[in-house]
Write a structure and sequence with these properties.
The protein is of the alpha/beta class. It has eleven helices and seven strands.
Length: 262
């Protein structure tokens, strides 16, 4: 996606794959970027037209002044979908973690644009039972120091050893994404991003077999909250299943898309 000189902000996106295929849009989670879904994209674009994008404040869509609330996330997604080259018709959206809530929010607000949604361990942190000691909850205690919050979040997700082995430039980039992470996690905790009764498109809620208990429970709850939802478990996967188990996740997405076409 391009922008006129001097115009801020700009959302980076890329579209690949079969020109005449179903349009599938991939949305990454908090403190991630579209590159985290590249393996999944490559397995889908043999069949479909696939769009990845860096959400506001992340990757090549950084720096970004915000706001980072769900309404602006949806507005960005609408623009990404409309500007994707060689695409037409309702899209299938695959959202990892926080990205699943962006996908469901689009289905809530613009159902005519969405053929179906696949989520992978999307947090339900606005609900009273969602734990406050999760990686996101811990990061929120450092909301006044967003760079430190981002580092703590990453250390919880990938471990201290892996974080310490990252190149200094990578650690600095992740720390710089702290404001986007804090903004979206704060909004998600304070406001439900979508209304279950308004999500009427088919939904498949995925979870990893070895995901954390609250993420696994969240997928179950999502399937119960949405009348059109089903739930599937990805064998051997943890929270980063779309990256670590792209073959299994892609197979489930393909099955879902083909069922929509029947």
């Amino acid at each position: 996606m391009s922008a006129q000189p001097g115009v801020v902000p700009m959302i980076w996106s890329a579209t690949t794959g079969a020109v005449d295929g179903v349009h599938v849009v991939l949305i990454h989670g908090s403190l991630d970027r579209s590159a985290g879904l590249l393996k999944l994209s490559r397995r889908l674009d043999e069949r479909y037209r696939v769009t990845r994008y860096d959400r506001r404040g992340y990757g090549r869509s950084r720096p970004h002044p915000g706001p980072f609330d769900i309404d602006h996330q949806v507005a960005d997604l609408v623009e990404v979908v409309r500007e994707a080259p060689d695409t037409a018709g309702p899209v299938v959206i695959v959202g990892h973690s926080y990205g699943g809530n962006v996908a469901l929010a689009l289905a809530d607000r613009h159902p005519e644009m969405v053929a179906g949604v696949v989520t992978f361990e999307s947090p339900l942190s606005w609900l009273s039972w969602w734990p406050r000691n999760s990686a996101g909850g811990d990061a929120m205690t450092w909301r006044d120091e967003p760079e430190e919050a981002a580092e703590r979040f990453m250390r919880r997700l990938i471990g201290d050893d892996r974080w310490d082995r990252l190149p200094p430039s990578s650690r600095a980039a992740r720390r710089a994404e702290g404001p986007a992470m804090i903004g979206e996690l704060t909004d998600l905790r304070q406001h439900a991003p979508w209304v279950p009764e308004r999500v009427t498109v088919p939904v498949m809620a995925l979870r990893g077999e070895h995901g954390q208990q609250h993420h696994r429970a969240g997928a179950e709850a999502l399937a119960e909250m949405l009348p059109t939802a089903t739930m599937r478990t990805v064998p051997d996967a943890h929270h980063f299943g779309p990256n670590t188990h792209p073959d299994d996740v892609a197979a489930m997405v393909i099955e879902f898309v083909e069922q929509l076409r029947d």
